[in-house]
Amino acid sequence: MDSMLVDPAWASAAEIARAVNDGTITAARVVEEALATISTRDPVLNAFTAVTDARARARAKELDQKRAQGQSLGPLAGVPFAVKNLFDVAGLPTLAGSKINRELPPATCDAPLIERLEAAGAILIGALNMGEYAYDFTGENIHYGPSRNPHDRTRMTGGSSGGSGGAVAGGLVPIALGSDTNGSIRVPSSLCGIFGLKPTYGRLPRNRSFPFVSSFDHLGPFARSVRDLALAYDAMQGFDPDDPVCSDRAVEPTVQQLEAGSDGLRIAVAAGYFAKGLFPEARIAVDRVAAALHAKADIEIPQAALARSAAYLITTIEGASLHLERVRKRANDFDPAVRDRFIAAAMVPGTLAAKAQKFRRWYRAEVLNLFSGVDAILAPATPCTAPEIGQQTFRLDGIEMPVRANLGVYTQPISFIGLPVVCVPVPLSPLPIGVQIISAPWREDIALRIAYALEKLGVVAAPRPNL
Questions:
Q1: What mean pLDDT is predicted for residues 295-305?
Q2: 65 Cβ neighbours under 8 A, 6+ residues apart
Q3: What is the set of domains in the chain, with CATH numbers?
Q4: Is the preceding omega at residue 39 within 30 degrees of 0, hence cis?
Q5: Per-residue three-class SS string for 117-170
Q6: Mean pLDDT across the chain, nearest whole number?
Q7: Largest CB tally within 10 Å, which of 5, 44, 95, 139?
Q8: Distance between CA 463 and CA 89 in Å, rounded?
Q9: Which of the four pLDDT bands, split at 50, 70 and 90, describes residue 295?
């Protein structure tokens, strides 16, 4: 605990909560330390678009008063957290990374996931930068500036939850929330060298968050340790009738299951599509994780390339339908790259969308069948470590490809069918990179157990940047 008091910016959520609960430190001090860190580091990292300092101080005071009265504060007592700015935060307009949304009235209440984290004792401290309307893999925003990677500030955080990745990797907060439609939790996790969880589609409620593609959208946490990831996830689980796809399955606590480890689990490595086009660092990362887990079997995910194409098609069509009126009226207020993709999607024949959805049903059945023989599948999260901010292209499988569209080349075929994934950071030099641990629907516990076993072995870890 002394180490936390010396350097609270790098304390884990679990350490902070333990110290606040036992009175070693006050929630007020934790908040002041976090605000000081944000004030010092965020002008360079550009992770935050709003800091809710008054709210955070009031919440900390309330928690300290409760503790003085002998009340229980919860498993996340005093833990600062921040959220991608597509979550409704009472008193703030829900920007969703856009210029247009600045004109929206402030939200009147918080998103359910914020409410649940605060019910567990956590303290919201701000809203985070993101790609415009979540249609981005880079973390670059033309309205609010690019989020910068704490490991090299000339490089991308990844997107669209770029501010979330940068804030956690840079020690501004121990926990952040983001969204993942095609990879927007896993890509920043990979490039920033932190842990990220994309739960099963329908596991966490999405209401009071700005949508992108409703049939793909997931919400989930980022953290610098597996235990913190599980603590946040457990606090947020539960049915919400206001989200029509939110499952009423029973809550499955995962923190208590971490120590079960990976022994006895059948783990395979995704071959074929997921082994093509990798930069050397991505190949090394997957091989290192696979070797530590004794995952000798390779498995072919059928038609993954077609799955990615279908995911792109459905993404653009659903996204365009949501934003078409804005594009008609305010085209010049969009990021041109986002606007032009929406315009192009509006001209896609409806028959193609129907074919993509039909393929999606077939593909889901085929992939789910794989889990009759394995418990988890390993795959690269990104093809490379963080590209430079402003970099337009890289070479994938010998072909020059756009960076912005292709950082999610290995994440899209997975979110397309809503599988749960934990992205784990492999601390290579000079930059970290992530590996996906993919499990069957509703088996977040398995992916988290494997991630925790790897963390205990020292194979995966969130490296501290030299800030």
A1: 94
A2: none
A3: 2-457 (3.90.1300.10)
A4: no
A5: HHHCCCEEEEEECCCHHHCCCCCCCCCCCCCEECCEEEEECCCCCHHHHHHHHC
A6: 96
A7: 139
A8: 30
A9: very high
